[in-house]
């Protein structure tokens, strides 16, 4: 027994990103809740290890895991794995000096467990395969099985998770391969049984039985040779053997691509009993060290590395993250999952991995054409690129080999389309932010609202609806405040949420106006002309807004109340709708008749047979030049009074040619009050005849 050796250290995995940056160390990826007997995946730390470094995320991965009963020396062994990986360039001296302390995964002597959950070494090792390809090597340590606080479910979950996620699982047992070891292994790998039936693929890759403290070297020698002999005997099936035993052995063989066994000697009495032992080679028996020199290179040398595969396809660091997420969901319920759920989780994981790769392809392509460092791209071209890269992304997803079949993958394909759609919306927003006009859309919209409200205020003032005119004036003030506030937010960076609300209001108004003026929807066959029509519409919308913003305000002053010059009143008389100049109007050689306008404003009328020297006048009512009578006062045509108080308030009164008096007194200097028609004095309808 050797994890009566575990080096002192508090290692429950409560680490954060800062701890990882400070140096390589074990990190708890899967944490256990001893009260609830549940498991939690630390996704942030997992992604920090596997995908934060661009050099690693797309590298194929080799995962070496050690699992088995607690207090059997698993972490102690893994520290020698770390020593080999750190010193693989020195194959003769990688074990270190005799007095060198063993560090790495936490271990200590004693009978109580040390490791909980599942731990990864925070530093993946880049190793080169014989063909020149670089792979990432990950070391995994697991919570020991069958301690006093773990249930069978806990033990099965940890072992199954580590086996599903590793390319080489080291089954750490002591002294011998016993029947209970095989039965536990059958329980832990039961999830692979149905997967074989569903996919015709073995669910796990390599299993190494590592028999520690082997005490019978006279029956089988240490190392692989003796191990193969012992493993062959233990997994042998015989005709008279009980069916249950045969099932166990057949199940184990069917769950792994490769089975092997290695026999290790005891490390020495001092290792097992000394409380001061810290992993120094001087205290370890030579036989144990010699077998370490054989075992570890057989797993970690370049020619012996086993790349993690699922469904026959190699897994990258990015894909391993997705498999972690998918598998942990299975074990977060109250009961062990149904056997088939592992297959479904595996299918889900590699579909998610394919989805992530396809989405990453789309994002990379779009970043090149409309990322943060690129200039504004025409919306039609952006749409075309989106469709092109979307098709490429979906094509990549569909051509990637995945478990579960086409029906199962359809849901993920739809999810990919949805994610691409969401990403495209963000790219459109990013691209629009580079458009100068779009950047100024909010103030332009509010300015247009001010102009419309200004014109509406004048109209309602003319027709005499004061309440609506006041409402329009209020809208003008609000719009002006909105423009000032928006400018403050843009330049100061304060009140960002309020600024976003103003942008949203402006966008709603813009979209509403644009939608009402939008030309008819284009059919599928109109794609060629559709872009031109859309472009023309956008130019039209921009022109209308520009016209409202510039031309109308500049001409609005002509609509204001202006000074009306007095009318020129000619000398003469107005009578019964006719104008008469001063003096005689009509006469005849055969007699005299006529109408004479006196300069004083009286009309004289006569009609007699002969012309006397002096006609006898008849006095009629005096006429009056055109003008307005209102409230007992006469107003000649033109301005009566007007003025400006210097603060934007105008007032005035004038008489129109159609006998109306208009007065105003308001903020915007526009006529707002129309008075009723004036009273025109009555005229006589008949005159007494002249007499000689």
UniProtKB/TrEMBL annotation:
Q: Which InterPro entries match?
A: G_GB1_RHD3_dom, Guanylate-bd_C_sf, Guanylate-bd_N, P-loop_NTPase
The record's section on SUPFAM superfamilies has:
Interferon-induced guanylate-binding protein 1 (GBP1), C-terminal domain (SSF48340), P-loop containing nucleoside triphosphate hydrolases (SSF52540)
- Please give the PROSITE patterns that the UniProt record associates with this protein: G_GB1_RHD3
Q: Where does this one sit in the cell?
A: Endoplasmic reticulum membrane
Q: How does it sit in the membrane?
A: Multi-pass membrane protein
Instruction: Provide GO CC annotations from the record.
Output: endoplasmic reticulum membrane
Alphabetically ordered keywords of this record: Endoplasmic reticulum, GTP-binding, Hydrolase, Magnesium, Membrane, Nucleotide-binding, Transmembrane, Transmembrane helix
Q: What Pfam family is a match for this entry? A: GBP
**Recorded GO terms, molecular function?**
GTP binding; GTPase activity
Query: Catalysed reaction per UniProt?
Result: GTP + H2O = GDP + phosphate + H(+)
User: Which family does the record claim for this protein?
Assistant: Belongs to the TRAFAC class dynamin-like GTPase superfamily. GB1/RHD3 GTPase family.
Q: In its UniProt entry, what is this protein called?
A: Atlastin-2 isoform X1
Q: What is the lineage of its organism?
A: Eukaryota, Metazoa, Cnidaria, Anthozoa, Octocorallia
